[in-house]
Task: inverse folding
């Protein structure tokens, strides 16, 4: 029995940050030894909301690729590719659109949420409405067994399962039911205490310099009750402590929490511990980033080699799809 296949992607809608690292990339690295992993840079998906300005799209694609490799993805073990280099995704998207009820797309939770939240872009486009359908094509194309998701992302996977079943109902069994590979995605707070997001301008980017990271940590908000060094605080009210829960040891977490509650340490001392631990994670990544940024030809070879492998897999699936529908050769 061969390894079961895992499929996941990431949008190049901006520079990647530490939330992307702990929420996706580190998990991808863990999975690559146990599964046949296909990881893609979802550049078409980025256009669903960033269509009006693509001036930095290529830079963001490169940033995603560099960070995937710097985080530890091995092109010899896993397939890393660009969505737009596998045109079969577009063909399957079109064919799935013929059988997908409009109401299914309109009921996707993030459709109305993002339209409400995002005020500076016109999201009244088919591309944005059809985002879940393109996502379904991405997953079904590789006949993936598993898709890494958090519990809150299961509705996105469920519509893929429904679309695959509807296609199979009309044309015969072509697509297997992809299952969610439930993963713990820790909530990573930004420098202002809200969820880390490029929208909020509160990110610690993987491409930041050591000086920039240190400055961002040192200027982070802490427990508002601790106005003076001698004031006692509540670590759970401090965004800094939430980052400690991800990057610091249990022992260190206990020490800084107790120091905060008793005013035994100041916020500056608390931040110094976090900076040390964050640097331990980021310094190897920064070194590997420098390696790949100095070798643009190697980056192109990696993404094109992965895309070629993805095209082979996609072509095999589309042969089954065309035959099932009756779009194959006449003889």
Result:
């Amino acid at each position: 029995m061969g390894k079961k296949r895992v499929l996941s992607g990431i949008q190049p809608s901006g520079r990647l940050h530490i939330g992307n690292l702990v929420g996706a990339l580190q998990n991808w690295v863990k999975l690559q030894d146990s599964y046949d992993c296909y990881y893609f840079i979802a550049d078409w998906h980025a256009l669903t909301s960033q269509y009006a300005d693509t001036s930095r799209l290529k830079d963001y694609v490169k940033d995603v690729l560099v960070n995937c490799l710097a985080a530890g993805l091995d092109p010899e073990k896993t397939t890393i590719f660009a969505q737009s280099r596998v045109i079969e995704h577009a063909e399957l998207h079109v064919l799935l659109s013929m059988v997908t009820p409009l109401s299914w797309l309109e009921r996707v939770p993030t459709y109305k949420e993002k339209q409400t939240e995002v005020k500076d872009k016109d999201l009244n486009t088919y591309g944005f409405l059809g985002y879940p359908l393109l996502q379904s094509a991405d997953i079904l194309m590789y006949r993936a067994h598993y898709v890494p998701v958090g519990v809150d992302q299961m509705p996105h996977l469920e519509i893929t399962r429904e679309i695959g079943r509807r296609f199979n109902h009309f044309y015969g069994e072509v697509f297997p039911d992809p299952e969610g590979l439930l993963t713990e995605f820790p909530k990573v707070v930004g420098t202002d205490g809200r969820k880390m997001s490029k929208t909020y301008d509160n990110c610690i980017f993987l491409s930041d310099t050591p000086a920039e990271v240190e400055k961002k940590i040192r200027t982070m908000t802490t427990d508002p009750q601790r106005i003076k060094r001698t004031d006692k605080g509540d670590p759970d009210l401090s965004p800094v402590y939430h980052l400690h829960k991800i990057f610091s040891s249990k022992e260190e977490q206990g020490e800084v929490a107790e120091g905060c509650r008793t005013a035994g340490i100041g916020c500056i001392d608390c931040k110094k511990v976090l900076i040390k631990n964050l640097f331990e994670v980021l310094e190897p990544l920064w070194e590997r980033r420098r390696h790949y940024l100095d070798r643009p030809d190697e980056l192109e070879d990696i993404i094109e080699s992965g895309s070629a492998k993805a095209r082979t897999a996609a072509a095999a699936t589309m042969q089954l799809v065309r035959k099932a529908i009756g779009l194959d050769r006449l003889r």
Remarks:
- The chain has a mean pLDDT of 93.
- The radius of gyration is 22 Å.
- The chain has two domains: 5-188+296-325, 208-290.
- The first helix runs from residue 18 to 31.
